[in-house]
Amino acid sequence: MSTTPVDDHAIYLGFDLSTQSLTVVALEVAHDGARVVWEHSIRFDDVLPQFKTVDGVLPNEDPAIALVPPAMWLAALELACDAVAASGLPLERLAGISGCAQQHGTVYLAADGTFSRETSPIWRDSSTSRQCREIERAVGGAGVLAARTGSRAFERFAGPQIRKFWQTEPDRYASTAKIHLISSWLASVLIGGEAPIEPGDGSGMNLLDLARGEWWPEAVAATAPDLPRRLPAVAPSHTVVGRLVRQWQQRWRLPAVPVVAWTGDNPSSLIGLGLVDERTLGVSLGTSDTVFGVMAQPRVDPAGIGHVFGAPTGNFMGITVFANGSLTREHLRDLYGMSWSAFSDALDHTTPSGDGGLMYPWLVPEITPVVTECGLRRVGLDPTNGPANVRALVEGQLMSHRLHSQWMGGEPERLLATGGASANTALLQVMADVWQRPVEVAPAGASAALGGALRAWHGVAASSAWPLSWSEILGRLQRPRSRVIEPRREYAAAYESLLTRYAAGVPQ
Ligand code: XUL
């Protein structure tokens, strides 16, 4: 193990700007190990009500449209820095900052750095189907786009969103000098300059040549005219993109620390969860549910639903995203007037497939599988039976996870659960039963923010004379032992047949 000058109780900050909140963690690195010593979270709706968001998004009559004022994210970053300054942390030992953001959202800047578009489309926007088909056609088909960029065109991806902006608001597109991802824009704010996009988040744009790690000219040309000069550079994930800008140093009495490239929340979670080999698959239960893991090779989903992103480790990650996550679980809980504990009881006191019914959990437009005409779909399920509906919803979500992540290659040995709902043991038992694999519960909730702090440490070390490998870094991270929930073998057969029935009703 190498000993570096930055090991002397250095503090690294990691941010995570998600859909509904901004979280920041401080990681202290000492000779006997590294540990999270402070964590703070801000919920946008609560602390920044002037922006009038609901669950972090501006309400819109059209369920396909999801826009957010980026000024709110900036205000949240400033509030988080207020909290850092007031934390009592020994900030003179701050050695690096990095972070991540919800993926795909784009921020549009005029030449003077002001917003040329006051609202940013985010990942929940599904209004660009036409643009997706246009881009795919122009590059020679969805398969060609997926093979190059890791994904066929997706409504929420940056490229189709940029194309829609150019088509619908050509004047404002013309006055746009730079188009950033949320992640690269926040890093740019911190350095008071222009931060590059790194491959993990860049692969959520339908613009990046994944194998080469550079913009793919055909996709760029198919997206909007004169786009190359509007795109930031691409740089490896461990790049130090600059130092904290002087105004931010002065305002919060922070040192001129290096800022490491920001990435997307999913690649960042991969690091925060320590998922660096193919044996473990991560399942994040949040606003969106995601199933993800490292891939040594960039395998592409033949069904065109899953994505391949760059991984901060330098190889690849596979990810399948389900839009109907916690908000859909909350909706059902409320529909049946339950508390979370009653929701868990409903799972504990029902058996697989409940009364034989199935539920397809598509309350909002679904990404996986593509479902635009949304609404919960019950099959053989009595809508007045709350517990049976709760079980059918959770089973529907978890079977969907299993079904739609097979393309990532082989069966994982175990699952690692994270996100808000990973605190729900009853739900994780259903997960273990559906997959027939042990489910380990990730210790810290803030894995994406922790990934930011670990990436800050890794990037700063990589730029020094004492670089550290990912296994050295993760080996030094001290975290509480995690709980493991074993599958109940007696339900294996029941879920095999339920999966077959469920799969038969999934649109192709
Ligand atoms: C990933 C995706 C979501 C967002 C949510 O493709 O759309 O997981 O990153 O934060």
Give a written overview of the molecule.
The chain is built from 18 helices and 22 strands. By secondary structure, the protein is α+β, with helices and mostly antiparallel strands. A 7-stranded mixed β-sheet has the order 16-17-15-14-20-21-22. The chain has a 5-stranded mixed β-sheet with strand order 3-2-1-5-13. Strands 4-7 form a two-stranded antiparallel ribbon. Bound molecules: D-xylulose. D-xylulose binds at residues 18-19, 102-104, 123, 156, 204, 264-266, 288, 290, 321.
Q: In summary, what is this structure?
A:
The chain is α+β, with helices and mostly antiparallel strands and 508 residues long.
- Low-pLDDT parts are none
- Average the pLDDT over all residues and give the rounded result: 94
Question: How is the largest sheet built, in terms of strand order?
Answer: 16-17-15-14-20-21-22
How many runs of DSSP E, i.e. beta strands? Answer: 22
Distance between the first and last residues' Cα: 51 Å
Supply the number of helical segments.
18
Structural class: alpha+beta
Strand content: 15-25%
Shape type: globular
Largest sheet: 7 strands, mixed
User: What level of helicity do the residues show?
Assistant: 25-40%
Rg over CA atoms: 22 Å
Question: Ligands bound here?
Answer: D-xylulose
